[in-house]
Specification:
The chain has helices at about 15-25, 30-45, 55-85, 90-110, 120-130, 145-180. It is an all-alpha fold. Helix 1 crosses helix 3 and helix 4 (about 90-110) runs antiparallel to helix 5 (about 120-130). The mean pLDDT is about 80.
């Protein structure tokens, strides 16, 4: 099982000063590091929740999440402007775009009268899970973690077989238990 080398796409400069400046900005390592730090900070903010939180803390967390929404939306807009259709050739960009659009849609639905009925809970939970899924983007930068993740991914079929074997074993013991103890008469 060898690792496949994929070519890294590098956007060519166009000759337009504004777009070329955006291309250099988007492909700079500082921009990438800033976005990675924002992803980690957003994950930490999404984890902050406890029983009987005060309304002030909830408002602060909400405004921080709005700030991250602005940052990630700006990232998508700048990258789309700089890379044009090449933006959608990278899987992580597509994932980020879906998360940004989904966040904006959930936010808009939340401000509409239908969003105030409380039926929006599952959508926001799914969206939160997607936003936390951005942490997987860090795998691209950390080679050792990427090797561990690939090993786990390759071991999933074997783990599924082991899980089915354990499920079969538990099912057999459940049948044996029901036949031995399930129909006994219990007298008071």
């Amino acid at each position: 099982m060898g690792y496949e080398a994929k070519p890294i796409f590098k956007q060519q400069l166009t000759g337009h000063s504004c777009r070329d400046a955006m291309i250099r900005f988007v492909e700079h390592w500082v921009f990438d590091a800033f976005i990675m730090i924002c992803i980690i900070a957003n994950t930490v903010v999404l984890m902050i929740k406890w029983y009987s939180m005060s309304e002030g803390i909830i408002n602060v967390i909400t405004f921080i999440n709005y700030g991250f929404l602005v940052i990630f939306t700006s990232e998508a807009i700048v990258k789309i402007y700089a890379l044009r259709r090449n933006y959608f050739r990278v899987g992580w960009n597509i994932f980020d775009f879906i998360v940004v659009v989904g966040t904006i849609l959930i936010l808009i639905i939340g401000f509409l009268p239908i969003g105030s009925t409380g039926s929006l809970g599952i959508q926001s939970t799914i969206l939160r899970s997607l936003r936390i899924g951005r942490v997987l983007r860090l795998l691209r930068k950390m080679k050792k973690l990427q090797i561990i993740f690939n090993t786990l991914f390759e071991a999933l079929p074997s783990m599924a077989s082991l899980g089915m074997l354990l499920l079969l074993l538990m099912f057999m013991y459940a049948i044996i238990g029901m036949s031995l103890f399930g129909f006994s008469n219990i007298s008071d």
